[in-house]
Specification:
This protein is an all-alpha fold and 125 residues long. The protein contains 4 helices and no strands. It is flat. The chain starts with 21 loop residues before the first helix and ends with a helix.
């Protein structure tokens, strides 16, 4: 695993900095890695309680697997230098939005447009 820059434990990205600078990328990488570690820990705990045939657990397993993929995709985007940019417009997603949801892939405007379109056409994802 790549060595990310050492961040102060009190560092929080701000809108006043250069967007997606090394410190911000390190911050989000750490946050995403913690999310991934927590999911994997939950999986291990769940495996002790549930069998694979437990249909009640299937939805949880699928949701968790999907979330893990999204986290891995976000970590890959950090490596590629494209993390933090809207998949629809290429615009900045924004620091505050990413702090609230590090897995956001769309800026607010594009997300709203997609949701409006989804509602108009009544499309399920």
């Amino acid at each position: 695993m790549e060595e990310s820059p050492k961040l102060s434990e009190h560092y929080v990205p701000s809108e006043d900095e250069e967007y997606m600078n090394v410190k911000q990328l390190g911050y989000f990488s750490s946050k995403l890695q913690l999310m991934l570690a927590e999911l994997e820990k939950q999986e291990l705990e769940d495996n002790a309680y549930y069998s694979d045939e437990d249909s009640e657990n299937e939805k949880l397993i699928k949701r968790r697997k999907d979330r893990k993929e999204k986290i891995k995709d976000a970590l890959e985007k950090i490596k590629l230098g494209i993390y933090g940019y809207c998949e629809g417009t290429g615009e900045e997603i924004g620091i505050e939005r990413l702090k609230a949801n590090p897995l956001a892939t769309f800026c607010i405007e594009e997300q709203e447009r997609l949701e409006k379109e989804k509602n108009v056409y009544n499309v399920d994802d």
